[in-house]
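Weekly modeling sync, notes
Attendees: AB, CL, MP (scribe)

Item 1: holo prediction request
CL wants a bound-state model with iron/sulfur cluster before deciding which constructs to order. AB pointed out that an apo prediction alone won't tell us much about the pocket. Agreed to run with the ligand included and paste results into these notes for async review.

Input as submitted:
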Amino acid sequence: MPLIHLFRRCNQRCVFCSYPADAGADGPAGLGDWLREIAAMPPGPVQISGGEPLLAGTSRLCLLLAAVKKLGRKAELQTNAIAAAGLPAGELTRLCKALKAAGGYFNVNFPAASPAADFRITKTRGAFGRRLAGVRRLVKAGAAVRLTHVISSLNYKSLPAFAAFAAKELKGIAWLQFSYIKGVGRAEARYLPKYGEVKPYLLEALRLCRAAGLRCDVDHIPPCYLGSFYRLNVDIVKMKEGRPGPHLQEKARVAACRGCRFLALCPGPRKDYMAAHKKL
Ligand code: SF4
């Protein structure tokens, strides 16, 4: 999915931030630059990212979303949802409507089920409570909300607890994605747990989601580590349809993939995972 980074500015300091480390300081980019960038992208839905896109302000975001719609494209608005907690009601409604009109959804980075764990990951005081309030407001306003739970060495043992938390405290979300940390940007290798360490906790979390009727999927952990839940791996559909995209650039098959029953459905493990751990 084509991606635009509006700017680097953010109200969190997540240890897993994948914003390109070599991107330099924010330039003078504004609405006109963003629209030109989107118009020049290959076809398909647009991921609007940052930094934190909500810091662009509601008016500019609504104009951006209207332009995306006019181009006949859909939008995914990535956010940590903190700013959504404090938006005046009218602005929140306007933003949700503009996103809905663009056939889109909020993709909320939600990394923990408690304030202390949230702080260890986002390095931002008070973020957990504001994020929780922000997501609830978005859901209440009728927006489609996907949660992305980035799996790192700081939270993988709490995956079942997070699944239970999401099912109980965040009713109304459209779905939950468990997404293994990318070893790029600010993410240091020590935050990348081994797939084998993550597996039992992730499978339990997926069982809990299934029992609670909470839709979920998994990104950046290959099917060979997902047991009977392998169909939840998001690359499988892309591979079946022969879609181009970052999954083919960021991942590559390795010697251990030889003879694998998922070979045609899996692009292999992430290259940065192999750089950190040397073996699958
Ligand atoms: S192709 Fe490789 S990474 Fe993918 S499921 Fe098979 S063994 Fe695992």
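Recorded for review: The first helix runs from residue 31 to 39.
Action items: CL to compare against the apo run; MP to circulate these notes.
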